[in-house]
Amino acid sequence: xxxxxxxQDVHDNPFHLTDNQSPVVVRKLSRCSVxxxxxxxxxxxxxxxxxxxxxxxxxxxxxxxxxxTGVECEHxxxxxxxxxxxxxxxxxxxxxxxxxxxxxxxxxxxxxxEGFEGLADGRLKxxxxxxxxxxxxxxxxxxxxxxxxxxKLGLPQIASKFKEFNLSALLxxxxxxxxxxxxxxxEARPQYKEFCIxxxxxxxxxxxxxxxxxxxxxxxxxxxxxxxxxxxxxxxxSGTKRRVFVVETMGGFCGYLATLAGLAGGxxxxxxxxxxxxxxxxxxxxxxxxxxxxxxxxxxxxLRNEKCNENYTTDFIYxxxxxxxxxxxxxxxxxxxxxxxxGCPSPFDRNLGTKLAAKSVAFLAEKMxxxxxxxxxxxxxxxxxxxxxxxxxxxxxxxxxxxxxxLKSQTDFxxxxxxxxxxxxxxxxxxILAKHESVYEVEGTExxxx
Length: 450
Known about the structure:
Helix content: 25-40%
Oligomer: single chain
Distance between the termini: 21 Å
Low-confidence stretches: 43-66, 444-450
Number of helices: 13
Number of strands: 19
Structural class: alpha/beta
């Protein structure tokens, strides 16, 4: 970033560039130094010592451990834990963290197998510490993930099971169906007091289509898998010479995977539902690839989201490129399918699932402690406030709890999408790097330390 004063040397005002999860942030190094000193770490002056900075006092995170709530409660509450939606990497890591932090805080976790279907059939199990041993690195869903939602099974039946097992809190780990399920339960609170308990959703889906968060658990692992496959496909295309591959990704109506995998894999185009695709766009991309072949770049990669367009299907685009590329390049297609859901979770997803589950249990424990009462010789939890039914997510470099009732207005339920998606700003950059004419809007901001 150039200095405000043209006479000033650019090296007199150095800057530090960091992503801080999202978005990109630009900070002055002098401000970073002030922020570092606030944590109790002092930096040695230049030339005085070659040793690493030594903490002068214990960092603040040691006093604010997410594992314990700091709330002393004399009662043991039952916390239900389930997976709802399609399997995604990181689900088991989150369940493991939730079970162990619940026990650590003196409560009893119940594993609910196969989502709300399992709850309706009474398939619940008291969990102990070792029941989740080794789960952190396993893919899929050990509890079983079903898409069935409570309204389909009948709210009276679900309410009766809540009462039968005396559930005082509910943690659901899953995708859009999990978010919608908690919303249904929260809206039914006036009719069923069994749903007047604290509830939290941890967004876990490869599609990254849940409102209230910028990143969903499992997305990083799926993105890594797609990018690796695209790299292999590009190697095949380079070896064959003059070949274009059309690759279909998952994600429902959300084009996150196609866009980010295209950006990471050097794709020539990525067709998604959020940006309408027309015949002129397809014609432009065919001409662009033909030009690349003439210039010596003898391979091409096109990504398409599975629900990009009901008419311009993967087969249609493949046949179009085959016809228009005759004599210039050959075309092949690949549908990646459910291999994007499998595999061991990446370190990012393992750590994110562990962190979000620990914070969710702390949130539930605090709400239970503040809203319990004795009724008919038994202790029950009853809360009706909006902030007791929340979705936990990453927003602007911080973990936030968002009430699902407030997220309802930010959701396109027909297409199962958030109404605003931050990654769409990256779309022009994808075309620029593929030598298309486009304009990229810089998203970097200068952040203060306050």
